Amino acid sequence: MSPFAHITGWGMAVPQRILTNFEISQIVDTSDEKIQELTGIRERHIASEDQSTASLAVDAALKALEMSGLRPESLDLIIVSTSSPEYIFPATACLVQDQIGASKAGAFDLLAACTGFIYALNMASQAIRSGSIQSALVVGSETLSRLVNWKDRNTCILFGDGAGAFVLQASDVPGGILSSVLRSDGSGGDLLSVPGGGSKHPTTLESVEMGLHYVQMNGREVFRFATRVMAQATKEAAAAAGFQIADLALVIPHQANKRIIDAAARGLEIPIERCMINVERYGNTSTASIPIATVEAVESGRLKAGDKIVFVGFGAGLTWGALAVQWSGPILPKRKVYPRSYLFWLRMRSLLLRVVRRMESILWGRDIPRS
Ligand code: COA
After folding, report:
1. Closest alpha carbon to 82 in 288, 226, 252, 319
2. Is 254 a catalytic residue?
3. Has 114 been annotated as catalytic?
4. If exposure means fewest CB atoms within 10 Å of the residue's CB, which of 35, 67, 123, 126 is most exposed?
5. Which of the following is catalytic: 21, 156, 254, 275?
6. pLDDT at residue number 366
7. What 3 state SS string does 118-164 have?
8. Looking at residue 2, what is its pLDDT?
9. Which DSSP string corresponds to 323-356?
10. pTM for the full model?
11. How far apart are the CA of 225 and the centre of ligand 1, in A?
């Protein structure tokens, strides 16, 4: 029998700095009342100068590892889902791998915008279910505040920074991630994009003057698309796992706009109380929103072992998707691990690897054969 992929650890990290609607109304022509009416958002967290997508990801990842009792060096795979990576390359996942000391893990970034965490969970769980790996770390991390035009009231009211992480582990106990629905429609790619900085519009003085490095969005069209797909994807994922909608303890949707979540609840014919909502405090943290909402659902007692749930998201691409999950209790023997306590040694290890590489290059770098 193929193993099941269980979520055995979870963690979140958000910057301390909170930006309120009132503060945004000092920058652009808007108001707290209007933002709340249009989106349900009251405030969001914004990364400080010394924080980044990787640093938030590492923070969330360490919490998830502590929770699961899995040592970083036992990890087989790291996927970081992000639309605001540290660099175009190397992958943010590799920075995380180095900083947490996951010495045996493969690492890559996945870009499916706000649906990315769903895509990444599916990839990792399929690798576990096929038997090719035993464990994975999946992180959703964003600092979209760095890509937002703070003079554009259509977008700057929406986004916030943060990260969430899950540890996935193989077990023969039935449960965990049971089904998935992944969809895309690239014909809507222009509705939400960051056009500059890639190979189509490389960064130039002109591209920056045109603001191509900022998030550009057709809000109304994205709204219409989101309300169309959320309920449908939830139903498909639930049916594929053999769940009835009435059996779902909780639906954990992407937190973009309270009105979109309301529409999804109406489409599913479930009371809004069965949807996890925290968009009012974080805004849209893109691919981090589902794991952040999950951590808060567990911490507030709304999500318990054995519960049947669905994660559902949508985003740029266009992409959308859903996963049906039976939430895991403590299914594997837990040891205490303290990855945080050896962060200093991990930095030393990384430094040592760089020094060795430099020395090798000085000693033998000239010996590379040339044909
Ligand atoms: N502050 C104040 N007023 C605003 C405003 C803002 N930030 N944005 C729009 N308005 C005003 C408009 O000028 C308009 O005023 P009018 O009625 O006097 O003409 C009114 O509010 C409605 O504007 P509209 O653009 O139709 O709003 P909307 O209902 O579509 O809401 C969004 C705008 C952006 C909140 C909404 O379209 C949305 O959430 N879309 C999805 C975006 C999203 O989720 N993106 C991420 C995907 S992962």
Report:
1. 288
2. yes
3. yes
4. 126
5. 254
6. 67
7. HHHHHHHHHHHHCCCCCEEEEEEEECHHHCCCCCCHHHHCCECCEEE
8. 84
9. EEEE---S-S------GGGGHHHHHHHHHHHHHH
10. 0.95
11. 15
Nearest-CA residue for atom 33 of ligand 1: 219
341 within some domain: no
Count the Cβ atoms, other than its own, within 10 Å of residue 247.
Answer: 12
pLDDT value, residue 101: 94
Work out which ligand 1 atom sits closest to the CA atom of 113: 48
pLDDT range class, residue 371, cuts 50, 70, 90: low
For the chain, how long is the longest CA-to-CA vector?
Answer: 70
Domain-located, residue 236: yes
* Set 114, 156, 257, 275: catalytic member: 114
Distances (CA, A) of 13 to 57, 183, 248, 293, 331: 7, 28, 27, 12, 25
> From its phi and psi, is residue 101 left (phi > 0), alpha (psi between -120 and 50) or beta?
left
97 inside domain: yes
User: For residue 270, how far is its CA from the centre of ligand 1 (angstroms)?
Assistant: 26
Residue 340 domain-assigned?
no
Q: Stretch 82-93: mean pLDDT, rounded?
A: 97
Sheet holding 162-171, edge to edge: 4-13, 162-171, 135-142, 77-81, 106-110
Q: Within 10 A of 163 (CB to CB), how many other CB atoms are there?
A: 34
Instruction: Establish whether residue 284 lines the binding site of ligand 1, counting it when its CB lies within 6 angstroms of any ligand atom.
Output: yes
243-290 confidence digits (pLDDT tens):
999 999 999 999 999 999 999 999 999 999 999 999 999 999 999 999
**Nearest Cα to 5, choosing from 106, 100, 136?**
136
Q: How many domains is the chain built from?
A: 1
Q: Is the CB of 313 under 6 A from ligand 1?
A: no
The residue segments making up the domain with residue 147 are 4-326
pLDDT tens-digit series, residues 306-365: 999 999 999 999 999 999 999 997 776 677 888 888 888 888 999 999 999 999 888 887
pLDDT value of residue 96: 98
Q: Does the Cβ of 293 fall within 6 Å of ligand 1?
A: no
Output phi, psi for 160, to 5 deg.
-140, 170
